[in-house]
Design goal:
This protein is an alpha+beta fold. It is 30% helix and 31% strand. The chain has helices at residues 2-7, 23-34, 85-94, 203-209, 214-237, 243-249, 256-276, 283-286, and strands at residues 44-55, 58-59, 69-70, 78-81, 100-110, 114-117, 122-135, 142-152, 162-175, 179-188, 191-199. Strand 1 (44-55) and strand 2 (58-59) form a beta hairpin. The longest helix has 24 residues, at 214-237. The protein starts with a helix and ends in a 13-residue tail after the last helix.
Length: 299
């Protein structure tokens, strides 16, 4: 009983009167609000990422669970973000009905959390406030809720060590009532990863407009995001093949190089199909040019 009472302890913040919530809602709100209370709710960045919880190079699963659940901070597992190329393409197909825009950027990441975007010349200092990992035994992937702050900063000196360089080819889908879903192909050195992020970009405006029950609004948006990433993981678990990928892979040699090249070609073909459904008078889509050649694997 004492443990249950502790789990239902009211959440304290600057949003008004504390509310009592179920343990899942409380864990979500605690992650967003409780850490670093001196920092205002905005401009906190709130996002979910798909990936896998691993231990010893293998995915960590909790037996006997039928639904996703948040884990304690000291769960001892490593969260590895990213999904497979095939699943990345599958999500692009699922999201094709939503407005989309494309960006290509190169980030130079320095020690101390500083990121320098080469295309815009903007330097950002990103501070991670809190992570909350979720195990998802019924889906193909686990997921992580991350809360961060981003502030513009001056460019680091030339002697500042560079941690890594990330080339990002991103497709951002605006999902009404939720926020933005980013599908990003990331190239860092010889490694190519496919990342999925759900960022609650519409939450600030909704809470600014809300005059009462702001705790409930925050809770509902967080639970909606959890449901969305769970549905993504469930869709990918079914492994439904895409016709465009089957066509492009037919007759190809089954070595690693040809499979990766074919997967990129399939993704390119799927996005061209997505492009064909858009308004041809839209300048953004008139400028669409397909995948850059440097993202194709050479090894």
């Amino acid at each position: 009983m004492a443990a249950a009472a502790a789990a239902m302890k009211p959440v304290q913040s600057a949003l008004g009167k504390p509310r009592r919530f179920d343990p899942l809602s409380k864990a979500l709100i605690d992650c967003v609000l409780e850490k670093h209370k001196e920092i205002p709710l905005w401009p906190r960045e709130i996002e979910f990422r798909l990936g896998r919880l691993q231990s010893g190079g293998k995915r960590h699963m909790l037996r006997g669970m039928m639904t996703s659940a948040p884990l304690a901070d000291d769960h001892g597992q490593t969260f590895v973000p990213g999904i497979t190329e095939h699943d990345f393409l599958s999500l692009a197909e699922v999201l094709r009905c939503h407005p989309c825009h494309e960006t290509k950027t190169t980030d130079v990441i320095y020690t101390g959390g500083i990121r320098d975007c080469q295309e815009t010349g903007t330097c950002i200092h990103k501070t991670r406030l809190k992570n909350l990992d979720f195990t998802n035994p019924t889906g193909e992937y686990d997921f992580r809720l991350s809360v961060s702050t981003e502030e513009k900063c001056t460019a680091p000196s030339k002697t500042t060590p560079i941690l890594r360089i990330r080339k990002k080819h991103r497709f951002s889908f605006d999902v009404s009532g939720l926020g933005r879903v980013d599908l990003t192909i990331v190239t860092s050195g010889a490694t190519v990863t496919h990342e999925v992020e759900v960022e609650l970009t519409q939450l600030k405006h909704a809470m600014d407009e809300c005059r009462a029950n702001r705790y409930h609004l925050l809770r509902d948006n967080l639970l909606l995001a959890v449901q969305t990433v769970e549905e993504f993981a469930d869709i990918l678990k079914k492994k439904k093949p895409l016709k465009v990928e089957q066509k492009d892979l037919k007759g190809q040699e089954k070595d690693l190089k040809s499979e990766r090249a074919a997967a990129h070609a399939a993704f390119d073909a799927a996005l061209k199909q997505l492009h064909a459904t858009r308004d041809p008078n839209d300048p953004m889509w008139q400028a669409w040019g397909g995948l850059p050649s440097e993202l194709l694997c050479d090894t």
